[in-house]
Amino acid sequence: MDKKIIFIDSEISLRSHKIDDLGAIKENGDIFHSTDIRSFVTFIQEGNFLCGHNIVHHDLKYLTEHIEVDSFTSIDTLYLSPLLFPKKPYHRLVKDDKLQSDELNNPLNDAIKARDLFYEEIEAFQGLPNILKRIYCALLYPFPEFQGFFKYIGYKPYPLTDYHIRNAFTGKICDHADIGSLIKQCPVELAYVLALVYCDDTDSITPPWILRNYPNVINVNKILRQTSCGGCKYCEEKRDAKKQLNRIFGFPDFRIYDGEPLQQKAAEAALHGESILTIFPTGGGKSITFQLPAIMEGEAVHGLTVVIVPLQSLMKDQVDNLEEKGIADAVTINGLLSPIERQEAVERVQSGKASILYISPEQLRSATIENLMLSRNVVRFVIDEAHCFSAWGQDFRVDYLYIGDFIKKLQENKQLSAPIPVSCFTATAKQKVISDIKDYFKRKLGLDLKVYATAAERSNLHYNVIFAETEDEKYNYLRSLITSHNCPTIVYVSRTHRAQEIALRLQRDGISALPFHGKMETVEKVANQESFLKNEVQCIVATSAFGMGVDKKDVRLVVHFDISDSLENYVQESGRAGRDPSLQADCCVLFNNDDLDKHFILLNQTKLSIGDIQQIWKAIKDLTKTRPTIQCSALEIARQAGWDDTVSDIETRVRTAISALETAGYVKRGRNVPHVYATGILVKNMSDAVKILEASDLFEENDKEDAKRIIKSLISARSIAEAGNDDAESRVDYLADNLGLDKRVVIRLVNTMQQVGLLADTKDMSAFIRRSDTENKIRQNLERFLRLERYIVEKMQKQAGDYDLKALNEQAANDDIAGATVKNIRTIIYYWTIKGYIKKAGHFTQNRVGLCPLYEEDDFKRKLENRAEICKFLISELFRLSEQIKGQSENIPVTFSLVGLLQAFQQNATLITMTMPARLEDIEDALLYLSKIGAVVLQGGFLVTYNGMEITRLILDNKIKYKAEDYRQLNEFYQQKIQQIHIVGEYANLMVKDYKSALQFVTDYFHMEYKRFIAKYFKGKRAEDIERNITSQKYHKLFDTLSEKQLNIIQDNHSKYIVVAAGPGSGKTRVLVHKLAALLTLEEVKHEQLLMVTFSRAAATEFKLRLMQLTGNATYFVDIRTFHSYCFDLLGRPGNAQDTDTVVHDAAEMIRLGEVEQGRIAKAVVVIDEAQDMSKDDFALIEALIHQNEDMRVIAVGDDDQNIFAFRGSNSAYMKKLITDYGATQYDLLENYRSRQNIVRFSNDFVKKITGRLKNEENIAVRQEAGIVSLTKYRSRNMEIPLVQQVLKHKAIGSIGILTNTNEEAMRIVRLLRKHNRRARLIQSLDGFRLTDLAEVRCFLNEICQNAITPLISDEVWKNAKNILKEQYAGSNCLEQCLRALKQFEKVNTRKKYQTDLFEFFSESKFEDFYEENDDCITVSTIHKAKGREFDNVYLLLSDAYPINDEEKRKIYVGLTRAKNQLHIHCNFSLFDDMNLDYVDVQHDDIDYDEPNEIDLLLTHRDVYLDFFKDKQKTINRFKSGTELLWRDGYFYANHNGHDLLVGKISSGMKNKLAVFTEKGYSVEQAHVQFCLYWKGKEDENETMIFLPELHLVRNGKTEIS
Q1: Are 1029 and 1081 in contact (CB under 8 A)?
Q2: How far apart are the C-alpha atoms of 242 and 888, rounded to whole Å?
Q3: Neighbouring residues of 1281: CB distance < 8 A, sequence distance ≥ 6
């Protein structure tokens, strides 16, 4: 038959499935290109063979209705290509299942390519050995995809038996494989597998399209090359684990555990396709047990082993360790990679060069990762840290629970008949954890995991626990241990800042030490780790992340400065000592019980509570109102849930909550949906950006301002990266969040900015250059590598050859090749391998490798020389850029654009010898080469990106809530964490007492059934103790000293609303502090979810200090605020006197209208102090918070009998409203711990006069002493003189408080006391006096503002500001109070001091808050100002008015209840006459007393002429509190250099007031400055320094009587 073949191709519409275009070419070169189907039919009608690429199942399917397909024999080049070009680089015209085309949608072009491919396929087939032709034809002839080809070339099938195949592939497949069954059942798959085996190239893989269409290829491969019979040539050589261990890793044998070869057994089990769970101790060599089978399966079946690891740093360490051994089979894809490194890693997996892929569990959500696995033969999943599957493990991670679902879905997509085996690894696991892991894989995948575990102890480790009371004691022990051992040492700490502090302290003490923790820059972490591994430093001070995957055998001391949070972690971390079994090593713990409380605090703050998950579930319900599936970022969900930036690790917490919801069946999380909008900024600065924006017509006017803010943020992000402080990633959701814009607006404007040339895909990225390196030094290093590289090229033959690396290195050294080392040779070979310049061939070992070049020698050399020129240029360019960067860091971050580097190189190309033009890939290759030889460290690139998650809501009923039963597994994990902390503490205490018992304790923990272990070691009440997330010592400290009533309040965690009616002296503050401590510890309320509101800064500070004493570090982040400061913060305004009256109302209204971000008001608990003082606006705020937080609890504590601020709107009715309207549980605290019996009795009798009280029962005196109550009744209106006489006569022991109705009375008494040489402090109201206006305070704040570079105040700036304050205001009467205020602030802010906190502290504090408390000084105060204080002895002055209303009665009640031991009442009315006064010392005084002869008057703002000060600033600026003044007829003078200068004037109101005193015979005798203040009038632009004077008035020159 005359063979006439026509090559065709068609373009088919994806939507209509109709033919859009047709192309064809005949053997003689005639062509056809048209959409006319009839003309096409005419063109092909003379042919009898139709050939095309994917013609059988694509083109002919659509041509059937137009031509008689059966009249043609079809030939499909697609199915032939992998058979005839199985070896990389395969065929130049084919990529996977597609033709490599120069033009899109050109069927004629594709038809021509199909013709070229077809003829080359014929040539390739003819070049095959006859036996292989026979095998292929016999297997494939029956199938339409192949039959046409064999007919065309005239090749007919012959009978085929398994003998033919065994004979042809001896030593390449297992002799005992059931080939006969494969011939019958899987002939096509068998042919493809044999083609790949025949090519004998480990880097070549089965094309992904074959894996999709012929999934049985994997099983055939497994039968032929992956199933060991143990008795044939192939299996004895290729499947022998011990032989391959020696060949690949250079180890002669596997490690033995207690006489058992567990390492070998686990590796062989993996090679036999078993699913396994291995439990080896730290340093036990678990990596070998999966790396060896992975490399072997990569060679045998071109398989990919996926290793799932929780830590990115651990992935990198494992890949780097293999690279150092010259093994290029492993890659990692993670967030630490630069764009170049990530791209290279993906390409290596796609191309088959990598047989091990390291990823994190979260990356299983990535479409890129999933597609990579679909394109490869995944032979095994390896899960490291497998205890993360179990809630009973020390590190349960919800994202691990997705692994099984992913593997199941992958198996279904690949249509696999057999499950993919898994290997699970953990260093420590209890029996329950082992059971959980096995159950998980049985349930999810039907796999039975075989356990390989060792009970062998690390006999070369000696454990020790040293009890240390204080941190200094701990440090001294640490220093002593390090110096006495004088060996490589690891010190473990629990916090990142501790790693820095202790490393620095050790350095100061002459011990070489470096820190290591997760918050360090990656480059610094790597550098510090390398310094330790190379013994450049003796000690590494690290958090628990250090050591994973680090193989340093000579560590002989591990010290836990802070004990681990579980025995599992402690055993793992201490096991990093003595990894060389021949070395003895010590493992020491420096311990005190407070260490455990630190772990409990951290656990509480990081715990994901059921309330957190409910908030995320509610957020998802809100986001899915209109559609069940959404794509949004973790940040967007967090914001919808009301989480703000105080929530630590916010995105991880959101993803964990979503995983928990997914596990419980509420949602289904799909793939991640990342989108990159730009990779570079085309302008250098903001001014250039503004010019482009203003000139563009693409932006509306309103858009221009938003665009400016966006580009400013992007430039700032790039600048931060250039400073080496962060990745230069700007996420769209974060931009929207930070700038307050809608996400869609940000995306639209970013896209527009690309159009106008502000942003582009220029691939901006960064690299680090070491400051200690010079350009010349780096160039010399490059030249050494290039010389060595050229040397190896010369030595390397074009054919495959074996090379002994040691011998090659010796030859290089003998030939004077500088820098020749085995490591450098390996680095070069590794780079060549990953770039595809060479492939490893034949057998290879640690120091012997077979290399086969994939390029002709001349091409190879050209590539090398071109790269060398680019590398030299890049070094110069990067150093040029680095010179522009300021800073002291050792690692200089250099930001650049790949496109920019290419353009710069091309501009300099005239000066550079290049054999071909440079491309972007060449720049990337050169950077990668510089990275591999250590010249630079590549970092992430600049991205404007959006990282979305696809979430489908499964439960559509809005009423359904996430329930306690759904939370059971997570809760079980957290309960386990609590118990693990107690258990490790028990181990420490046991180790101090009895070494052997402690070791037995550890053995029992890991090997006994858990309940039996608890029953053995924690008997009786101790079993209850370990259920609490607090040590028993701290628990007793918190609760043992409380009364039954107080304890009931603390333990009430069920009542949504609680009102505590607390009588005077009932321990209200104590109850609140202990309740806060219980919320933070036992009830696990997170600090950001807790809000306490008070009515004074002094109260807030006291609560903070007392809570610190109870809970320590947990207090720092608790939000204890005044109503006003909280509301100013909500409104985003600094506190100011003008808005104080309306700020609470405005904030409540904004919350009610939904105008406050949910994250700023999302609270789990609100605690109200002095709740009786709430006003209408205060309660409106509380109600607004209640309505915005469905499950929020409210705890209100107060005493309605002490509501004495009705004049400013306070009303105890709002306390009652919580009970009546919200059903609050009421507790009455009646025990009075303050006052003696008679004082309590008197106040109980008096309080009955008040109506509408909450409490019905009397207060109970806890103290048994009787106490003194005296009542002196006067006829005189003036009682100050006899009261003071009584004070002087009594000589009372303890503190004395004299309480008055008015400021004037208080000032008279102060003068009387001072006249009699008694120290007295006056506490009075000062209208218009704000502490921030005080000159001394302002001096300090100004120094802070001018010198604090960041919002954080450094210790140096703080210290200098205090010194300047002391210098400038030495001798000021106010200095001591100011210094006490600073000391108070320091106590509350021991760790960090922020400017905002400091300004808020002073804005809300009052001057009287900082008077020194001592018994030598008598406190004189109005009753209002005395509220909240207490005194051993109280003298109460009640003059004139009979209290006719409850407000006045409550004020007197407050005064009465301030007394502890003695109460002396001086009054001139009959209010107490109807009371039983049998126990009261009642006196009557009928003397008519005059006013005191001497009076002090402290003037306020209203008493001075404020504008008068404006032109006196030069003089007033020299004043201090205490400066003497001269008084002349309403004017103040100051003596300066012998001259009296006019400096002040009293107001007309004060003139009138003084006139009254003048009529009584008083005159001003002395005056001095009491306060220097800043003041600003309503119309003024600038502040004016003023002073408030104190006047001393004397009547007719008289003095007081004694």
Answers
A1: yes
A2: 51
A3: 1312, 1489, 1490, 1492, 1600, 1601
Task: Please state the separation of Cα 1053 from the chain's center in Å.
Answer: 29
Closest C-alpha to 840, from 299, 287, 300: 299
CA dihedral 319, 324, 327, 332 (to 10 degrees): 10
**Cα separations (Å) of 1387 from 303, 313, 713, 1412?**
62, 38, 37, 16
pLDDT, tens digit, 9 for 90 and up, residues 1045-1094: 999 999 999 999 999 999 999 999 999 999 998 888 888 788 888 999 99
Which of 864-868, 884-888, 1134-1138, 1316-1320 has the lowest average pLDDT? 1134-1138
The token pair at 930 is 């510089």
167 burial level (CB within 10 Å; 0-12, 13-18, 19+): exposed
User: Nearest Cα to 1247, choosing from 1465, 1456, 1458, 1481?
Assistant: 1456
The residue type at 580 = D
Strands 1268-1274 vs 1352-1353: parallel, antiparallel or unpaired: unpaired
Assigned token pair, 33 = 């290109």
Pairing of strands 1562-1575, 1524-1528: antiparallel
**Model confidence at 571, in pLDDT bands (50, 70, 90)?**
confident
Contact 530, 540 (CB under 8 A): no
> Rounded to an integer, what distance in angstroms lies between the CA atom of residue 1098 and that of residue 1408?
10
Non-local CB neighbours of 684 within 8 Å, separated by 6+ positions: none
Dihedral angle of Cα 539, 541, 543, 549, to the nearest 10 degrees: -20
Count the Cβ atoms, other than its own, within 10 Å of residue 398: 22
> Is the dihedral angle over the CA atoms 565, 566, 567, 568 positive or is it negative?
negative
User: Can the peptide bond before residue 89 be classed as cis, meaning omega within 30 degrees of 0?
Assistant: yes
Beta bridge partners of 1268: 1462
CB 1423 within 8 A of CB 1204: yes
Closest CA to 179 of 214, 142, 220: 220
- DSSP 8-state symbol, 1264: -
Distances in Å between the Cα of 134 and the Cα atoms of 130, 158, 220 are: 6, 7, 19
* Residue 603: predicted pLDDT: 84
The residue written with tokens 């918190």 in the block is 1038
Specify which residues 1091 forms β-bridges with. Answer: 1119, 1166
Distance CA 210, CA 843 (A): 29
Count CB-CB contacts under 10 A for residue 1009: 12
pTM of the model: 0.75
Query: Rounded to whole angstroms, how far apart are CA atoms 451 and 434?
Result: 8
Each residue's pLDDT tens digit, 417-443: 889 999 999 877 788 888 889 999 999
Q: Which residue has the tokens 């005056």?
A: 1567
Strand-pairing partners, residue 1219, are none
The angle subtended at Cα 1446 by Cα 1442 and Cα 1449, nearest 5°, is: 55
**Which of the four pLDDT bands, split at 50, 70 and 90, describes residue 796?**
confident
734, two tokens = 């974060």
pLDDT digit string (tens) for 218-245?
Answer: 899 999 998 888 788 889 888 999 999 9
> Which helix (H) or strand (E) is 1193 found in, with range?
strand 1193-1198
Helix (H, G, I), strand (E, B) or coil at 271: helix
Q: Which residues contact 1333 (CB under 8 A, 6 or more apart)?
A: 1573, 1574, 1575
Contact 1550, 1505 (CB under 8 A): no
What is the per-residue DSSP string for 1375-1429? HHHHHHHHHHHHHH-SS-EEHHHHHHHHHH--GGGG----TTSEEEEEHHHHTT-
Two tokens, residue 890: 């050792």
**CA 1140 – CA 1146 distance, rounded (Å):** 10
Q: 553: which 2 tokens?
A: 């055998």
Q: What is the predicted pLDDT for the residue at 854?
A: 75
User: Which contiguous run of DSSP H or E holds residue 1367?
Assistant: helix 1355-1368
Q: How far is CA 1150 from CA 639, 1126, 1181, 1188, 1514, in A?
A: 18, 13, 10, 11, 46
Structure tokens at 1510: 């404006």
